[in-house]
Design goal:
The complex is a heterotrimer of chains A (141), B (323) and C (1000).
Chain A (H helix, E strand, L loop, with lengths): L7 E6 L3 H10 L8 E6 L7 H10 L3 E6 L10 H18 L7 E5 L5 H18 L12
Parallel strand pairs in A: 1-2, 1-3, 3-4
Helix pairs in contact in A: 1-4
Chain B lengths: L3 E7 L5 H7 L4 H8 E5 L1 H4 L3 H6 L5 E7 L2 E3 H13 E7 H6 L11 H8 L14 E4 L2 E4 L3 E6 L9 E3 L6 H12 L15 H4 L45 H6 L16 H12 L10 H9 L4 H5 L19
Parallel strand pairs in B: 1-2, 1-3, 3-5, 5-9
Antiparallel strand pairs in B: 4-8, 6-7
Chain C lengths: L4 E4 L3 H11 L5 E4 L14 E2 L4 E2 H14 L3 E4 L2 E9 L2 E8 L14 H5 L3 E3 L8 E3 L1 E2 L11 E2 L9 H5 L12 E7 L1 E4 L3 E3 L2 H4 L11 E3 H8 L20 E8 L15 H15 L4 E6 L9 H11 L2 E4 L4 E4 L5 E7 L4 E7 L1 E6 L1 E3 L3 H8 L11 E3 L3 E5 L4 E3 L9 H14 L29 E6 L11 H9 L4 E7 L5 H14 L3 E6 L2 H14 L7 E5 L1 H5 L6 H21 L7 E3 L3 E5 L3 H12 L3 E5 L22 H14 L2 E4 L4 E5 L5 E5 L2 E5 L1 E4 L3 E3 L14 E3 H10 L7 E8 L13 H15 L4 E6 L9 H9 L4 E5 L7 E4 L3 E7 L4 E7 L1 E6 L1 E3 L3 H8 L26 E3 L9 H21 L1 E3 L5 E3 L19 E4 L4 E4 L9 H5 L5 E3 L4 H12 L6
Parallel strand pairs in C: 1-2, 1-13, 2-5, 13-26, 15-22, 16-17, 16-22, 17-18, 27-28, 27-29, 29-30, 32-33, 32-38, 33-34, 38-49, 40-47, 41-42, 41-47, 42-43
Antiparallel strand pairs in C: 3-4, 6-7, 7-12, 8-9, 10-11, 14-23, 19-20, 20-21, 24-25, 31-50, 35-36, 36-37, 39-48, 44-45, 45-46, 51-54, 52-53
Helix pairs in contact in C: 1-2, 1-10, 6-7, 7-8, 10-22, 11-15, 12-13, 15-24, 16-17, 16-22, 18-19, 19-20
The chains are: A alpha/beta (141), B alpha/beta (323), C alpha/beta (1000).
Bound molecules: FE2/S2 (inorganic) cluster.
FE2/S2 (inorganic) cluster binds next to helix 3 of chain A.
Chain lengths: 141, 323, 1000
C-alpha cells in the first residue's frame, strides 16, 4: 500500500502568514502539496470549532498561522489565537488525539523560507502520526 | 379531544428527571386531564412484556431520559421508538449525553476497573455478562463502547435538555406537546444563553485568571465570571431563568448544553474564555505569565464539556495519545 | 499634467505624505529614483523597539499608495527642473525607461530566470546577485521588472520568454512635465561608507567587517544567507560579534559632528535578536553613550542586557585581522580605565546616517538651502522644521536630519499638512470615476463563473489547467468556466465582463495567483460589470501551488483542483457587502493648550475647520510658560508661546481655559463632550495633554530645602531671574528614571540640563556647574553640537554616575553632594549652592480619566498608546481620535510641532473627506441571539463593540470595525459572525477541501 498521504488544513492570516506563503512561491521554495490553506483576515478569526470541523471532515492535521507577536495587523488578535490554540491542544490530548496534529506558527510576510519549512515539517510529522480516524466505532462489540 | 397516551422511561440516569415530573405541582392535574400515562417503570412497575404487547405507535409521546450507556438502554429505547409516535429526549443526558458522558474520557474497561476496585468493594469480582446463581442463569447487559445521547440510537422528535428540566420548561413543553401545537425539533431549546436570563451585574470581560470557587468569596450581585470563577452561562442555553447564579451564587455548570443550533458547547466556551483570560497586558506578557493564565483553567475538557461531551465533535476519547 | 503635490522620495516618509494628501482628495505624484518605492525601511529586517517585521508593516502602505487613485508613482525617475513658485511649480521629470511595459508586466519573473547576466544586488548590499532584468525585492511596488541597461547584454532571452510580451527594447526614456502647487522633499538618507571615513575599522579590507545595513540583510529571512549571520570569509556561523557605535557620527574630524539618532537602538536590536536566535554567540556593543531615548527604548535596552548582550563603553581606535582570521578590536574601556584588545569573529559598524548624495544637486534644482552637513535646511530648526528655506517646498524625514521611523512618519504627515497651504482653494477629488450601477443579485441563485489562469507558463507548465477547469464545471452553481493565458491582462478583463453579461454570472472565481496582489484588479472588473466587488473569490494556484510543487505535475493539478473547488464553495455563499459611511463634519476639539495643542489647533483652523481648544490651566502655553529657553536654541519659550497665542487669537478658534472635561461620548462624526458643564459636539478629537514631572518629594531631600529644586523650577527661576549668584551648582539627571519602578528615559532631561548649564554659565561665568548624568542623551538636530560646546566649557563638569550608585545628599549650610564618578572611578564631594533635579517625566494626570472616556489605552507611564509604534504614531486604533506631543511621549519642540502638524493632518483626512467609511468585511451581531454576555467587548481592539444598555445586547459600530473577526470567534453562541468569512462559509471551505478521500 502507498504511504499514507496526510491532508492538512491551514488557516492563514491575510497579512503575514498568507503573504509568507506567497513569498515562498515567489522564491520557488518546494514543499509537499498536502496542505490546503484557507485565508482569513486574522488568525484570531479561527475558532476551535473550525479546527474540530476539519478533523471531523477528515483532516489529519490543522495548522493555524498568524503574524508574529506584536505584528498582528489588528494589533493583538494573535495573542488570543495563541491562548485558544494552546487550550485546544489540552483538550485534544484529553480526547486521545495527539496535540501535534494542531500546530500554531508565527510566519511573517518575509519568511517564505519558514513557510516552506513549516509545511514540510508538519506534513512529515503528521505522516509519522498516521491517519486520524474520527469515524464512530460500533457501540456494541 | 382524545386523551393522549404518554410514557416515561429512564436510561442511564440519576433519577432527577423522573422526580422533576413531580416538580410541576398542580400542573400535573392538567397533564392527567390531557393524557394517560401508559408506561412509567419508575412509578408504575410495568414489565417489558407489557411494552412489547403494545401496538406500534400506540403511545403518542414517549419521554425518555438518561444517557444511553448499556445494551439494555439501547434495546429498550429501540422498542419504545417502535411503540411511540413521538419521542422526546427528556433532560440533558438523553439530549446531549449528560454528565455521564464524562465517562467517555475513559474506556469502558477502565471504568469497570475503577468502579469495582474501591477499597470497600474490591473482592476481585467483576460483573459478568452471564453468571450462574442458585435460581438459574442471569444475564447482565454490557456497557456500550461509550456513552451516547438518545439521538445516536433512535430518531428523536423533540429535545428538552435540562438537568433536570425545570417546571418552567415543562410547563411550556407539556402545554405545547399535549396541546398539539406545532413545535419544531429544537424549539424547546433556547437560542439565547443563560446570560440573557441571569440577573447578575456584568462587566466587559478582562479576566486575569480563573480561580477555583473555594478561593473566592463570591459577591452575589456580580457576574461570577467577572469574579474570576469559571461560569458556563455564556455558552449554555438559557431556558432555566439562571437559578444557579441568581439564587445560589453558584456558577452555571452548563447543564442545558449549547444554545439552539450550536453544535459544540465546550469549544465555544473555550474560544470565548481563552480570548479574554489574560487579555490585560497581553502585549507585554512573558511566556510564563501567559502559561499561568492558560493553566488557570484547570481541566478544560471536564469543565467545558461537563454535560455535552457525547454530543460534541469529538464525543469520546480515542484511545491513548500516540507519540 | 496638472497635479497638486510633488513628493520627491518614495520611502516610508514620502509615502506617508502622499497617503495623507491623497486621502484628502489631492492629486499627488511620487518620484523615486529607484525602480521601486520603499526606500530604506524595506531593507530592514525588524524594527525597534517592537521587533516588528519591517517589510510586513511597510509593504501594505506601499501597496495602499500604489492603489490609491490620487497617487501616481514615477519610479526610476528624477526631478530635473523646477520653475515657478509656491502654488504653481512647473516641474520636469526625467523618467528612465525600464524597457518593460508596466501595464503588461505581471511580475511573474520568468524573464529574470531566463536572463544570463548576474549583477550584485544593490538591495542586498551586494552580498548576493540579481539579474540584469530584475525587481529590487519580491514585494516591490510597482511589481514591474526593470532592465538594467548598464548590465544588459542584449541577448533578448527575456523578450523570448515573456508570454505577456511586456518587454519592449524600443521604449525610450522621456521627460514628463507636471505642474504642482507644493513640493515635499523626502529623499531620506544614505548610510556612510566606513572605508571612506573610518578606514581604521577595516571595512572592505577584512571580510568579516560589515556595515549595519549589511548585517540587517543577513538577519532578514529573505536575505542572502536566509536570515543567519554567516561570515563572509568562510560561510560559517560566528562565535562572537561586536558592534561599533558612532562610526562616522559624533566626530567632526572623521565623519559628521551630529548624532545619527538611530544607531544605539538598531545595534541593540541586532545584537539582542542575534542573541535570542543564536544564544551561544557572544554579542558586544562598543559605545560612547547609550542613547535609548524614545518610547520603550530604554526597556528594550535593559532587556538586551538581560539577554546577555555586553555593553562596553569605549570607542575603538582600530580593528585588525589576526592570522587566525579573528578580528582584534583595540579600545579603551572608559568605565574601567583600561586599554584593551578584544577578539571577535565578526564586526558590525554602526555607520552614520548621511545626507543623500543627490541632495546638493536637488537643492540647486529646487533652489533651497542645505545645512552645513548637507541635509536640507529648515526655515527654523525648532519651530518650522518642515518648512524649507523656500515657500511652497517642505521637508520631511531624514532629508531634514537623521531620525527614526515614527519621527519620520510624523514629519511625513506634518509636511503633508504644511503642503496644504499653497493649495488653498483648489478643487479636490478631481477624478470622478463613473460607477456602473450595481445589480441586485440578492435573491438570485448563484451563477458562478470560474476563470482559470495559465499565468504564461507559471501555472500551465506545472499543472494541467484544463483538468482544473474540467474539475469544477459540474459543481453546483457553476455555469461558466474558462481559462486564459493571463487572467489579469486587459483583454482577459474584457472577456470576464462579457461572460458576466452573456451568462448572467453573479459570482466570480478566479483561479490564478495571490488575492493579496491581484484581488483588486478583478474586483474592479466586477464593479465595471455592475457586480458588487465582494461577489468575488480567488484560488491561489500559482504562489501556493504551481510554484511550490513544480516537480509533481499530477499532485499539483490535484491540489489546484481542490483549491479551486474550495473557492467555488465559498463563492456559492458570497453575498453583496456594502461599506457603510457616516458623515464627518468639520468640528474638532483639541485637548491641551501647550505647544502641541496650539499648533494642532492652528493647523486645523487654517484649513477652515471649526476648532475648540481646551486647556486645564487658566492660560494657554503649557510647558512654554515654564521654560526659559528652548533647547538647543536661544529661543525664548514665553516669547514663542506668545506668538502662538497671538496667531490663535487671529484665527477663529474657540479657546476654553480652566477647562474640565467631564465626559465624552460617541465616536467619529458625533462626539459629545462635556466641558465645564457645557455640551460640545465635535467630529474629531486631538489629544495634546502633554507630560508632567513625577512627584519629586521622595528624591534627594527635595522639599526640605528651597535650594533643592527640579529642572523646571530652575527654568522658572532663571526666567524670573530669582537665582542668587551661585558658586557651585549641581544638576542630577535621570532622577527617578532608568530604574526598576520607572525604567523609561524621559527623552528631554539631558538637553534641558545642558541648556540650563549654558545659561547659568552665561549669567554667572565664574560658577561651576556639575552635571551628574548616566548617559548623555542628546540626539536631535544640532543637539550633539550644542553638547560639545557646553562640554568645552571648563566650568561645566560632567560626572557619570550609575543607578546602582546614586549620589548622596547632605543638607547643611551648603548642600553636600557625594558622587561616585564611574569614569574616573573616584568618589567626589561637592558643596553646592543649589541642587537641581532633572525629574523623570510621566503622562499628564488627566490621562486616566480621558482614556476611559475615549476608550483608548495608555502605558504604565501614563503616555497614550498609539495605534502602531512605528507607522501610526499619531493615531489610535480607531479613526476619530489623534495624538500629538508629550501626551505620546516627551519630546523637544521640533518633534512636538512635527507631531502637531502631523496629527492635524491625520484628523483632517476624515474631516476633509466629509465621511468615514467602514470596511466591507465587518462583523455583525444577530440581535435575536445576542444574550449580552459581554465577552466580545474587550476583545475588539478598536472599541467597536459596545453594550447597549437598553436592549442589553452588543452593538457594533460599523465604521469602527476593521474586520479581524476576533469577536466572531469569541461569541460563545454564534450571535456574531463576520461577513464574508462567516462560520458556514469557513466550514463549507473545509468540507470542500476534504471532500475527496483521494490521495494527494
Ligand atoms: S493579522 Fe496576522 S495574526 Fe492578526
Amino acid at each position: 500500500m502507498d504511504e499514507h498521504e496526510p491532508r492538512i488544513i491551514a488557516f492563514l492570516c491575510n497579512w503575514c502568514s498568507y503573504a509568507g506563503g506567497d513569498l515562498a512561491g515567489v522564491n520557488r521554495e518546494q514543499y509537499p502539496p498536502n496542505i490546503l490553506s484557507i485565508r482569513l483576515m486574522c488568525s484570531s478569526r479561527v475558532s476551535p470549532e473550525h479546527v474540530l470541523e476539519s478533523f471531523q471532515e477528515g483532516a489529519d492535521g490543522v495548522l493555524v498561522a498568524g503574524c508574529h507577536p506584536g505584528d498582528c495587523h489588528y494589533i493583538n488578535g494573535n495573542y488570543k489565537t495563541k491562548r485558544k490554540i494552546e487550550m485546544m491542544s489540552k483538550i485534544l490530548k484529553d480526547m486521545g488525539i495527539n496535540p501535534e496534529r494542531l500546530r500554531l506558527e508565527w510566519i511573517s510576510s518575509a519568511e517564505g523560507g519558514k513557510f516552506a519549512k513549516v509545511m514540510k515539517e508538519m506534513v512529515e510529522e503528521v505522516k509519522q502520526l498516521g491517519p486520524l480516524d474520527l469515524s464512530d466505532v460500533p457501540l456494541e462489540e | 379531544m382524545m386523551k393522549k397516551k404518554i410514557a416515561f422511561y429512564w436510561c442511564a440516569a440519576c433519577g432527577g428527571c423522573e422526580v422533576s415530573v413531580l416538580d410541576i405541582d398542580e400542573m400535573i392535574l392538567d397533564v392527567i386531564e390531557k393524557a394517560d400515562i401508559v408506561f412509567w417503570p419508575c412509578a408504575m412497575d410495568p414489565k417489558y412484556e407489557d411494552l412489547e404487547a403494545m401496538e406500534d405507535e400506540e403511545i403518542d409521546i414517549a419521554f425518555i431520559n438518561g444517557s444511553i450507556r448499556s445494551e439494555e438502554n439501547k434495546e429498550m429505547v429501540e422498542l419504545i421508538r417502535e411503540k411511540a409516535k413521538k419521542v422526546v429526549a427528556y433532560g440533558s443526558c438523553s439530549s446531549i449525553g449528560g454528565l455521564f458522558g464524562l465517562g467517555n474520557l475513559s474506556s469502558k474497561e477502565e471504568l469497570i476497573e475503577v468502579g469495582y476496585s474501591t477499597r470497600s468493594t474490591d473482592d476481585g469480582v467483576r460483573p459478568q455478562n452471564e453468571s450462574k446463581v442458585e435460581e438459574g442463569e442471569l444475564e447482565l447487559p454490557s456497557l456500550l463502547h461509550h456513552v451516547v445521547p438518545l439521538d445516536r440510537v433512535i430518531e428523536v422528535d423533540h429535545y428538552l435538555p435540562g438537568c433536570p428540566p425545570l417546571p418552567v420548561q415543562l410547563e411550556e413543553a407539556f402545554t405545547a406537546l399535549l396541546g398539539d401545537e406545532d413545535v419544531g425539533k429544537y424549539d424547546l431549546i433556547s437560542q439565547k444563553s443563560v446570560c440573557d436570563v441571569c440577573a447578575m451585574d456584568r462587566e466587559e470581560k478582562r479576566i486575569e485568571k480563573i480561580r477555583p470557587i473555594q478561593e473566592v468569596s463570591i459577591d452575589p450581585e456580580k457576574c461570577i465570571l467577572d469574579q474570576g470563577v469559571l461560569c458556563m452561562g455564556p455558552a449554555t442555553a438559557g431556558m432555566c431563568e439562571a437559578p444557579c447564579p441568581s439564587v445560589a451564587a453558584h456558577p452555571c455548570v452548563g447543564c442545558n448544553g449549547p444554545v439552539r443550533g450550536m453544535k459544540d458547547q465546550g469549544s465555544r466556551m473555550l474560544s470565548a474564555l481563552a480570548s479574554v483570560v489574560g487579555i490585560e497586558g497581553e502585549e507585554n506578557m512573558e511566556e510564563d505569565e501567559l502559561q499561568e493564565a492558560i493553566d488557570s483553567i484547570r481541566d478544560p475538557t471536564g469543565s467545558f464539556y461537563t454535560f455535552s461531551l457525547p454530543s460534541s465533535y469529538l464525543q469520546y476519547r480515542r484511545g491513548d495519545v500516540d507519540g | 499634467m496638472k497635479k497638486d503635490v510633488l513628493i520627491i522620495g518614495g520611502g516610508i516618509t514620502g509615502v506617508q505624505s502622499a497617503l495623507d494628501l491623497a486621502e484628502k482628495g489631492y492629486e499627488v505624484v511620487i518620484v523615486d529614483k529607484s525602480p521601486s518605492i520603499g526606500g530604506n525601511m524595506v531593507k530592514l529586517d525588524k524594527t525597534f523597539p517592537t521587533n516588528d517585521c519591517s517589510i510586513c508593516i511597510s509593504s501594505p502602505k506601499m501597496v495602499e499608495a500604489s492603489r490609491n487613485e490620487n497617487i501616481d508613482i514615477l519610479t526610476y525617475s528624477e526631478v530635473k527642473e523646477v520653475l515657478g513658485s509656491a502654488g504653481r511649480f512647473n516641474v520636469k521629470i526625467w523618467k528612465k525607461t525600464k524597457y518593460v511595459d508596466p501595464d503588461i508586466c505581471t511580475g511573474c519573473g520568468d524573464c529574470a530566470d531566463a536572463c544570463p547576466v548576474q549583477v550584485p544586488s544593490e538591495f542586498e548590499q551586494e552580498m548576493s546577485y540579481r539579474k540584469a532584468i530584475y525587481v529590487e525585492y519580491p514585494q516591490s511596488v510597482p511589481l514591474t521588472y526593470t532592465i538594467d541597461y548598464d548590465h544588459c547584454v542584449g541577448c533578448c532571452a527575456c523578450e523570448r520568454i515573456c508570454d505577456a510580451d511586456a518587454i519592449d527594447f524600443l521604449e525610450k526614456s522621456r521627460e514628463i512635465e507636471i505642474e504642482v502647487g507644493s513640493i515635499i522633499v523626502a529623499t531620506g538618507y544614505e548610510m556612510m561608507q566606513p572605508q571612506e571615513w573610518r578606514d581604521e575599522y577595516g571595512y572592505t579590507r577584512y571580510d568579516n567587517v560589515y556595515t549595519a545595513l549589511e548585517f540587517e540583510r543577513l538577519m532578514s529571512a529573505s536575505g542572502p544567507t536566509g536570515g543567519k549571520p554567516l561570515k563572509r570569509s568562510d560561510g560559517k556561523e560566528p562565535e562572537s560579534i561586536a558592534w561599533i557605535q558612532c562610526v562616522g557620527s559624533r566626530c567632526k574630524q572623521k565623519g559628521m559632528p551630529y548624532c545619527s539618532r538611530v544607531c544605539c537602538m538598531y545595534a541593540t536590536k541586532q545584537a539582542s535578536i542575534t542573541k535570542s536566535e543564536m544564544s551561544d554567540v557572544d554579542t558586544s556593543i562598543y559605545y560612547m553613550d547609550m542613547r535609548t531615548y524614545g518610547k520603550d527604548f530604554q526597556q528594550y535596552y535593559d532587556k538586551a542586557k538581560k539577554k546577555g548582550v555586553n555593553y562596553i563603553r569605549g570607542r575603538p581606535s582600530r580593528i585588525y585581522e589576526e592570522p587566525d582570521g579573528s578580528l582584534a578590536i583595540e579600545f579603551e574601556d572608559t568605565e574601567k580605565g583600561e586599554v584593551k584588545t578584544d577578539h571577535v569573529d565578526m564586526v558590525v559598524l554602526s555607520s552614520a546616517i548621511m545626507p543623500s548624495s543627490g541632495n546638493e544637486e536637488l537643492s540647486k534644482i529646487l533652489d533651497i538651502e542645505l545645512d552645513e552637513n548637507g541635509f536640507f535646511q529648515s526655515k527654523e530648526d525648532l519651530t518650522d522644521a518642515m518648512d524649507s528655506s523656500r515657500e511652497g517646498i517642505y521637508l520631511a524625514g531624514c532629508a531634514q536630519s537623521p531620525k527614526d521611523i515614527p519621527d519620520s512618519v510624523a514629519q511625513g504627515s506634518g509636511a503633508a499638512g504644511r503642503a496644504l497651504e499653497p493649495l488653498k482653494g483648489r478643487e479636490r477629488w478631481k477624478k470622478k470615476t463613473e460607477k456602473t450601477p450595481e445589480k441586485d443579485v440578492s435573491d438570485q441563485e448563484p451563477r458562478i463563473g470560474v476563470f482559470v489562469c495559465h499565468c504564461g507558463k507559471n501555472i500551465a507548465n506545472y499543472l494541467d489547467v484544463n483538468s482544473v477547469s474540467e474539475s469544477v464545471k459540474d459543481l453546483p452553481g457553476v455555469v461558466y468556466v474558462n481559462d486564459s493565458v493571463f487572467a489579469c491582462s486587459e483583454d482577459a478583463q474584457k472577456l470576464i465582463k462579457e461572460a458576466i453579461d452573456e451568462h448572467d454570472l453573479n459570482r466570480i472565481v478566479v483561479s490564478a495567483c495571490s488575492p493579496r496582489t491581484h484581488e483588486q484588479v478583478f474586483q474592479q472588473t466586477l464593479e465595471e460589470a455592475g457586480l458588487n466587488k465582494y461577489l468575488f473569490e480567488m484560488a491561489n494556484i500559482r504562489n501556493m501551488c504551481s510554484w511550490v510543487h513544480s516537480d509533481d505535475n499530477e499532485k499539483a493539478t490535484k491540489k489546484a483542483e481542490i483549491l479551486t473547488k474550495m473557492a467555488v464553495a465559498k463563492a456559492r455563499r458570497l453575498y453583496a457587502l456594502t461599506e457603510s459611511e457616516i458623515d464627518v463634519g468639520n468640528r474638532t476639539l483639541v485637548i491641551g493648550g501647550g505647544p502641541a495643542g496650539m499648533r494642532t489647533a492652528l493647523s486645523l483652523s487654517q484649513t477652515g475647520q471649526e476648532v475648540t481648544l481646551v486647556e486645564k490651566e487658566d492660560r494657554l502655553g503649557g510647558k512654554l510658560n515654564e521654560l526659559d529657553t528652548l533647547f538647543p536654541s536661544e529661543i525664548d519659550a514665553e516669547k514663542f508661546a506668545k506668538e502662538l497665542i497671538h496667531q490663535i487669537d487671529e484665527e477663529d478658534i474657540r479657546v476654553i481655559t480652566s477647562a474640565k472635561i467631564e465626559g465624552i461620548d460617541g465616536y467619529i462624526g458625533n462626539y459629545e463632550v462635556t466641558v465645564n458643564e457645557e455640551e460640545i459636539e465635535v467630529d474629531t478629537i486631538v489629544l495634546a495633554t502633554g507630560f508632567q514631572e513625577i512627584d519629586p518629594k521622595d528624591f534627594y531631600s527635595y522639599g526640605e530645602d528651597d535650594r533643592i529644586m527640579t529642572q523646571l523650577e530652575l527654568d522658572r527661576s532663571l526666567k524670573k531671574d530669582e537665582l542668587e549668584e551661585p558658586k557651585d551648582i549641581v544638576f542630577i539627571n535621570c532622577v527617578g528614571a532608568l530604574e526598576e519602578e520607572r525604567p523609561w528615559c524621559c527623552r528631554v532631561g539631558c538637553g534641558n540640563s545642558l541648556k540650563n548649564a549654558k545659561e547659568i554659565k552665561r549669567r554667572y561665568p565664574d560658577a561651576n556647574v556639575y552635571i551628574l548624568y548616566k548617559d548623555m542623551r542628546v540626539f536631535g538636530k544640532k543637539e550633539e553640537e550644542y553638547y560639545m560646546e557646553v562640554e568645552g566649557d571648563e566650568g561645566v563638569i560632567f560626572l557619570r554616575y550609575s543607578t546602582e550608585n546614586e549620589p548622596e545628599i547632605e543638607v547643611g549650610e551648603r548642600i553636600g553632594v557625594k558622587v561616585h564618578d564611574n569614569l574616573l572611578d573616584e568618589d567626589l564631594e561637592i558643596d553646592a549652592d543649589y541642587l537641581v533635579l532633572a525629574m523623570q517625566l510621566e503622562g499628564d494626570s488627566s490621562v486616566n480619566d480621558l482614556k476611559k472616556m475615549l476608550k483608548v489605552a495608555s502605558d504604565p507611564a501614563s503616555f497614550y498608546m498609539e495605534a502602531h509604534a512605528k507607522l501610526r504614531p499619531l493615531e489610535f486604533p480607531s479613526e476619530g481620535v489623534y495624538l500629538a506631543g508629550g501626551a505620546h511621549y516627551p519630546k523637544n519642540v521640533a518633534d512636538t510641532l512635527a507631531q502637531a502638524e502631523g496629527a492635524a493632518s491625520k484628523a483632517l483626512v476624515p474631516m476633509m473627506k466629509g465621511y468615514s467609511k467602514s470596511e466591507g468585511i465587518i462583523s455583525v451581531v444577530d440581535d435575536d441571539l445576542c444574550s449580552g454576555c459581554k465577552m466580545c467587548i474587550s476583545v475588539c481592539p478598536y472599541g467597536a463593540i459596545e453594550h447597549d444598555p437598553e436592549d442589553e445586547i452588543a452593538k457594533i459600530t460599523d465604521v469602527l470595525c476593521k474586520g479581524c473577526g476576533a469577536c466572531a470567534s469569541v461569541c460563545p453562541i454564534g450571535a456574531i459572525d463576520q461577513k464574508g468569512y462567516d462560520n458556514e462559509t469557513i466550514n463549507a471551505m473545509i468540507q470542500a477541501a476534504l471532500m475527496e478521500e483521494e490521495v494527494m
